[in-house]
Amino acid sequence: MKKPEIKILDKYIIKKFIGTYFFALIIIIGIVIIFDISEKIDDFVLKEAPLNEIIFKYYFNFIPFILNTFSPLFVFITVIFFTSKLASNSEIIAMLSGGVSFKRLMLPYMISATLIAILSMVLGLYIIPPANKQRLDFEQQYIKSTKYYNANRNIHYQLAKNEFVYLESFSSWNNTAYRFTLETIKDNQIVSKLTAETAAWDTTFNGWKLKNYFIRDYHGASEQIKTGKEIDTVLNLTLEDFYRRKNVVESLSYKDLNKLINMQKLRGDKMVKYAQIEKNSRLAMPFSAFILTLMGVALSSKKRRGGIGLNLGIGIALSFSYILFMRFSQMFVHTGTLPPEIALWLPNYLYALIAIILYRAAPK
Fold this sequence. Notes:
Layout (H helix, E strand, L loop, with lengths): L7 H39 L4 H19 L1 H18 L2 H7 L4 H42 L9 E6 L4 E9 L4 E11 L2 E14 L4 E13 L2 E12 L6 H4 L10 H14 L4 H13 L3 H13 L7 H27 L5 H4 L2 H16 L3
Helix pairs in contact: 1-2, 1-3, 1-5, 2-5, 3-9, 3-10, 5-9, 7-8, 9-10, 9-12
């Protein structure tokens, strides 16, 4: 089967698609930054944020985040806008009359969507996470400079295959856990149990200093007890685990995100859902370029009396509904209704079905 060649018509459509897409993004980025500055200017002045940090540490790293967030919206609007213009100028009719099938006409659109999907994937996996780290650090220092308090009580974690830890409470004022218990269990039998009144984080060796401790080692029916005033121990549990922000997952690389998910699953940490949402969102977002492109062409390829206004209105409504559904689908994860692997991909499944129906109904 002969591969389709890239022709002048294809280059024309690709140039229009990519050019209009980035032009629209530049405009929205400028508008968002202006509104963001007006909202945060008081914080910048009050906290005396340096101008170079505002520009390079905050807004320079804010741009990739905004670009990827609004990408689905402007893929759809771009396709609707310039395809409606082609249709209103009877260029679509001329192409189809000249022997170009509607399926063949989709080729340059899909090539453009592939380029945008690759850009979105690269941004989501490699560029945005380190950029978010600097942006979130800046926000913590100059915008949301509040201490993170851990209000959880009765904390249970599985640290390793056979190790389980329990804390009655944790105080962020002195970085101390109260009623600390560490159990080692093998074959459903307790092998050892370490209890202490307090466990304070010690930065000198990045470990825990236990006070008034008891160690019980079980050997069948016999039991050996060791006690003391103070002992140091290093565990697979650090101070960071008690101060981890929900949005810290936005700053983790894909590899670190998977490590965090595996660790939190092992521990039974309820915060794992935030990492799972972030991971699946990064993977699902790029595929929206193909779905919304197909939908946009199917909607706007027919010449309408009202011009491109109606098509643009439909395009904006559908693209906003897609982004809203992407956000709403996270609630299925938080409520435990659906697993992240299904919930975060649900908008793609649904809108892909809508796109196929519109494509089949489009004038050929």
